[in-house]
C-alpha cells in the first residue's frame, strides 16, 4: 500500500486518510470547527508556510470538505466554510480531541471545554450504537463484509 494510492484502496480508512490523513489538514479542520475561515488566520494560527496552507485548503475544497465563499470584491478574497461533508467530520475531530484530552492534557486538564448549547453542560464525546443507543466498546463490535467489499484474489 503506497501513500499516494490510498484513495484507490478498497478500505474506508485508507480512502479517508487520502483526504484528511495529513497533520496540517487535521489542524486546519480543527480551526474550521473553531470558527476560523480566512487564509491569513489559518497561517497565523498554525505558523506554517503559505504553500502548505494553500495546498491543504485546495485539497479540502477539491474534495468537497470546504467551499470557498467570497468576502471581498476588490481584490477578490475568499473564506473557507465547512460543507455538509466537512461538518460530517465533527465526530472524528471530537474523537481525536477526546483522546488527546484523556492521554495528553496533563495535570492542568484539557485546554478547551466543550459545552452542549442545548442543555448547557460540558460534555465528553461518546460513540453509541445507532440502533440501541448503547455505548460502543471496541471489544463488543465485530465486522463483516459490506456491499462494497472486494473479493479476495
Explain how this protein is built.
By secondary structure, this protein is mostly helical. It is 39% helix and 8% strand. The longest helix is centred in the middle third of the chain and has 15 residues, at 90-104. It starts with 11 loop residues before the first helix and ends in a 49-residue tail after the last helix.
Strand order of the largest sheet: 1-2
Distinct helical segment count: 6
Question: What coarse outline follows from CA principal-axis ratios?
Answer: globular
For the termini, the CA-CA separation is 16 Å
Task: Give the helix proportion (percent range).
Answer: 25-40%
Provide a quick synopsis of the model.
By secondary structure, the chain is mainly α. Helices cover 39% and strands 8% of the residues.
Key features of this structure:
mainly alpha; 153 residues
How would you summarize the topology of this molecule?
Layout: H1 12-20, H2 23-33, H3 39-46, H4 50-62, E1 66-72, E2 77-82, H5 84-87, H6 90-104
Antiparallel strand pairs: 1-2
Amino acid at each position: 500500500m503506497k501513500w499516494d494510492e490510498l484513495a484507490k484502496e478498497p478500505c474506508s480508512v485508507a480512502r479517508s486518510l487520502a483526504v484528511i490523513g495529513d497533520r496540517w489538514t487535521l489542524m486546519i479542520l480543527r480551526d474550521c470547527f473553531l470558527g476560523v475561515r480566512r487564509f491569513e488566520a489559518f497561517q497565523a494560527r498554525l505558523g506554517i508556510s503559505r504553500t502548505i496552507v494553500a495546498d491543504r485548503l485546495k485539497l479540502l475544497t477539491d474534495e468537497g470538505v470546504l467551499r470557498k465563499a467570497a468576502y471581498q470584491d476588490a481584490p477578490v478574497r475568499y473564506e473557507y466554510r465547512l460543507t455538509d461533508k466537512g461538518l460530517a467530520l465533527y465526530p472524528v475531530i471530537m474523537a481525536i480531541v477526546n483522546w488527546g484530552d484523556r492521554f495528553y492534557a496533563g495535570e492542568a486538564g484539557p485546554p478547551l471545554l466543550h459545552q452542549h448549547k442545548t442543555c448547557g453542560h460540558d460534555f465528553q464525546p461518546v460513540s453509541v450504537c445507532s440502533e440501541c443507543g448503547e455505548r460502543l466498546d471496541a471489544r463488543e463490535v465485530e465486522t463483516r463484509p459490506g456491499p462494497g467489499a472486494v473479493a479476495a484474489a
